[in-house]
Amino acid sequence: MSDVNAPLWLLAELTYKCPLQCPYCSNPVDFASTTGAELDTDHWIRILREARELGAAQLGLSGGEPIVRKDLEIIVAEAHKLGYYTNLITSGIGMSADRVAGLKEAGLDHIQVSFQASSSELNNWIAGTDSFEHKLEMARAVKANGFPMVLCFVTHRENIDQVDDILELATRLEADYVELATTQYYGWAFINRDVLMPTRDQLESAEACITRFRDENKNDAMKIFYVVPDYFENRPKPCMSGWGSLFMLVTPDGTALPCHSARQLPGIEFPNAKDTSMSDIWKHSDAFQKFRGFDWMQEPCRSCSEKEKDFGGCRCQAFMLTGDAAATDPVCDKSPNRHLVDAAITQSSITTKDTKPLVFRNAKNSKKFFVDTSN
Amino acid sequence: MESTDVPKLANGYRFQWEPAQNSHVLLYPEGMKVLSESAAAIIELINGTDTIEQIVATLEKKFPEADLRQDVIDFMTTSCAEGWLNV
Fold it and tell me: Apex CA A209: angle with CA A183 and CA A138, to 5°?
């Protein structure tokens, strides 16, 4: 296949270990059952080299919590030498000011620090750990070392009313960018969807806060990225800009995926980067060809004038909601299954965390979930 | 913007040649902009010490046929507004 685009993005999920327990984590719910050992430093260096040769220019280092990896600085230094733009996606927990400085020295380009809320109390409850003060300290260390800093707040029913405070906190920490990403319902967030989904009123208030902030701070250097929640839209998101189009991800055990949650899709054998070259994976593997282009589409996507804009939406969402990964993303109001999304919105509006407690992301719950679903 | 201003790439922006794109690009947190040849020819000269005037003079030597002063100034103005250039 000589007509396959270059993958611009490589996301390296270095580990599933994480000191936080966020109930909206995009990691697979059965992460604790993945038996494969974590890739070692040499594996990662070969993967980075091969993906760079294919054309990948942006490298995301995430997890779990990537700072858990003791060889992070070695991986960063190698990536820098290869010419990647290197992005560390971290909660800041397990980080120290010394490591921030060491990562700068290794050539890291950018750090994204996640916060769970703008207040200590809510942040620590969502994260399942006492982490807020340390995050503030690490955000200051990131700035002190001259990194551009993105602060990422995943928003949901519990924290979306804090948008004014969130923007104020981001301004105080001198963030270059603040990302307000409404929870997308994959992984742990899918299990917790009924209690994470905000109401339409909450979303409208949040958007009004953002608009007001932008109007009042026109010359401000801080940019705001607002990721809208697709369940409340009429058209699906152009997920990953299309399957196998720009993005590839390697999980801690080496499985190569075209998106964060593809491993759940049935009937696809995802190659492992330990024994297959990144070039073969990207250009020739059945898994990366599966939903590339437009030939796999069913109606109404196949004849839709907007298919080149949204690529039929998200394959994982189609599978999770309809059971068919090749169906039109049911967010689309042309989908015969749109009622499933509306039903989920209705269900969430009558569910509270008192009637359905949040399931926090940790190994214990992961094992429980895995056993439950395999029986 | 004055012709004596010294333009600099904003913090976190990197200019480099990408063989896979057959183009120069600007890389920044989680993003990439593929540059036209003329944009690349200007950015290549932004070194943190040369003024806009000096950059225009260098370009005029390189492309004597073209009248590019206004183009360079327009480009710098837009780039500043986009946030990837500071003067």
Answer: 60
